Amino acid sequence: VNPYQDTLGGIRDAFLSRIDLTSGALTWQTYFGGTNAEYFFQNGNFENGAMVAVDPNTNTVTFCGRTYSEDLPTLNAFDSTLGNGTGSGVDAFVSRLDPTQTGLNQLLWSTFLGGDSADAAFAICLTANNCVAVTGYTFSANFPMTPNAIDTSFCGTPFFDGTALDENDGFIAVLDPNQPPSDQLRYSTFVGGCGADPLVDVEDWSGLLVACGTTTSGDFPTTMDALQSSINSTIACSLVVVDPGAASGGSPVFSTVFGDSADVIWKSLDRLGKTLVLGGLTVSTAGWYPTTPGAIQANHAGGHNWDMVFTEIRFDAFIRSDCNEDGGIDIADAVASLDHLFGPTGPPSCEDACDSNDDGLWNIADPVHTLSYLFSNGASPTGPFPDCGLDPTNESPTLACASFGACP
Fold it and tell me: In the chain, how many H helices and how many E strands?
């Protein structure tokens, strides 16, 4: 129905369909690919999250995958050649179609993404600033990076035999299709250690990007506030939060591994208020995959079959310098900070919000910083400011933020 491409182009093509949920009618369907093969999934156990994103304002469809086709359709591409110009191998691709147009006019943007080895995109999301975030894995040491990456060095083996258990790095990239090709790559970083680190889903969270996956790396980089700092067996889940708007590279906002067993996989994530909800599979026996009191099922059912797992991780958003949690910054916040520090009220519910100068400490310097900002043209608080958000610097895990009333 109104296809961009009406015939199979090669050995295997991607396809997209749109169904009217009210009538059940197929309203749009198309092939997409070149003369070799395209994939919307990953072989083996590492199935992925959302590979298609629909813009509710324009109805455009943005999607990702991996391709072996040198002649994959491209338009206004950041990278118009397969294998970083080698014309061989396998690349990630990201494309956008407009089903309201007809025929070839539907293609709005399409690009390869990768280096000279094997690369695959597993999930995308649309960001608040009209960019496209994509995640997956790469075997390419020359995968395109940006200066503000948390990691610019590949630590894997540039070899690929079709399984994600080879040594690879995860990646998170942000592209802006509305920019000229040379300016489209807004952010790109490796994620992982020296094992296999595929990332299979990604979500935008108020400008930060949250990605989950799986790791076999004993040296997977984690932050001080990680739920679990390293894997203890052969494989574990991974979760990383990065700030693509950071001016320079450095540590992730948050990074952790979770669980241990022969097989434990987080496959998808979603945001629910201040909570990340992760879903996956495990064959972990009792004690390997942590469960909470009152869990519907506290232990693996036994045998070698997969059990589903659901995990919620809470992150408290706040506004820096808003020590009294009223949603604004004024002299009352400096007074509240002093009262909490030296008065009878005790610590606030979100110490991180009172850390006005963002030095990882909460002391007299913070109300002084707030007053300087308000009345002496001093430096403004760093993020999250002036709106609710997660702490992009994560200077100290010792500053608690159990709750913050001004943020939903």
Answer: 3, 18
Q: Where is pLDDT greater, at 170 or 43?
A: 170
**Is-contact 237 266, C-beta < 8 A?**
yes
What dihedral do alpha carbons 361, 365, 370, 372 form, nearest 10°? -150
d(CA 13, CA 79): 20
> Which residue from 248, 233, 159, 145 is spatially nearest to 191, judged by alpha carbons?
145
Structure token digits, residue 33: 């690919």
Q: What is the pLDDT of residues 101-131, one digit of tens each?
A: 999 999 999 999 999 999 999 999 999 889 9
The CA–CA distances, whole Å, from 122 to 42, 135, 193, 233, 372 equal 8, 6, 19, 25, 47
- The predicted-structure confidence for 318-361, as pLDDT tens digits, reads as follows 999 999 999 999 999 999 999 999 998 888 888 899 999 998 89
- The pair of structure tokens assigned to 41 is 């999934």
Handedness of CA 214, 216, 219, 224 (dihedral sign): positive
Closest alpha carbon to 127 in 243, 290, 232: 243
